[in-house]
Structure to design on (319 residues):
């Protein structure tokens, strides 16, 4: 496993990290989730990402139990807030940051998180209030560093303008894959210029870039698409034209001598501003294949051919 510095922090995160969205505490059995975390340690993955809203606390609870046997300094732990936790508990106000952080720490069974992220931007709370509360969390020792997910370039610039009176973000968590390249236009250049790394979600486009799906057949029974607990966000990637384009990438991965999964993850990691690709897993063996993407050196010409294939996918028709 290779490691990369996370923005301007002193954290060195594994190139492949384990995420818990739709899986841990939600779509898979607790013991399976614990086995996957143990497998991550075996594979020298040191970065784990979750959020309070995943299963409304269930994901953090199971992850906390899975991490409990491992020394606290042996892993880097990230969680998020903003999502609706019920009872009017949502957003990035000072009150919510203080409450949700303490609740997350209790579920995760730890006294601090290494990275605390704003899951989305909160237009209903002044940014100055949010950043002041997050800065107080860092000064309290409950949080080491700050990040955000899916903020617009304007949101990012506004937060940077408040530095040094407040703590600076060190990470951005956007959706990014060979099928979804939007961050390249503004978010990645802006981040790179300001000591902010990307830790990307859905680098395999909800598993479609594993090549397991067939445009002319139902999803495999053990796949995310076939699991009602985990398939609510995958429909857009299951269009036949997307599946057929992914099929055309398989010979490129074969030529590189890697699996399509590893090829797709290596494509994400070719970007220097990406510190880590967050993967989900419903079985320990899936994580082993994913981890094999770290450190791969792929001929850039093969990536260029894959990019051409992806660029040729027609946009979905608007209804």
């Amino acid at each position: 496993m290779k490691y990369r510095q996370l923005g301007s922090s002193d954290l060195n995160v594994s190139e492949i990290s384990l995420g818990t969205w739709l899986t841990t505490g939600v779509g898979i059995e607790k013991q399976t989730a614990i086995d996957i975390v143990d497998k991550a340690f075996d594979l020298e993955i040191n970065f784990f990402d979750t959020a309070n809203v995943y299963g409304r606390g269930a994901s953090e609870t199971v992850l906390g139990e899975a991490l409990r046997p491992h020394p606290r300094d042996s892993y880097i732990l990230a969680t998020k807030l903003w999502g609706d936790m019920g009872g009017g508990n949502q957003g990035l106000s000072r009150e919510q940051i203080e409450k949700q952080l303490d609740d997350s720490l209790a579920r995760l069974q730890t006294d601090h998180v290494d990275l605390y992220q704003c899951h989305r931007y909160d237009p209903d709370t002044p940014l100055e209030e949010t950043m002041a509360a997050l800065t107080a969390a860092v000064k309290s020792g409950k949080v080491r560093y700050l990040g955000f997910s899916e903020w617009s370039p304007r949101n990012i610039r506004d937060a940077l303008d408040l530095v040094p009176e407040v703590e600076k973000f060190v990470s951005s968590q956007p959706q990014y894959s060979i099928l979804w390249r939007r961050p390249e236009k503004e978010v990645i250049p802006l981040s790179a210029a300001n000591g902010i790394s990307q830790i990307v979600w859905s680098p395999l486009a909800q598993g479609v870039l594993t090549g397991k799906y067939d445009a002319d057949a139902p999803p495999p029974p053990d796949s995310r698409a076939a699991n009602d607990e985990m398939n609510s966000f995958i429909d857009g990637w299951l269009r036949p034209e997307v599946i057929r384009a992914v099929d055309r990438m398989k010979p490129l991965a074969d030529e590189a001598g890697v699996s399509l999964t590893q090829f797709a993850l290596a494509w994400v990691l070719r970007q220097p501003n990406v510190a880590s690709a967050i993967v989900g897993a419903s079985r320990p063996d899936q994580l082993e294949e994913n981890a094999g993407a770290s450190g791969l050196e792929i001929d850039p010409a093969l990536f260029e051919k894959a990019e051409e294939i992806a660029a040729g996918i027609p946009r979905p028709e608007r209804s």
Q: What stands out?
A: Confidence is low (pLDDT under 50) at residues 225-231.
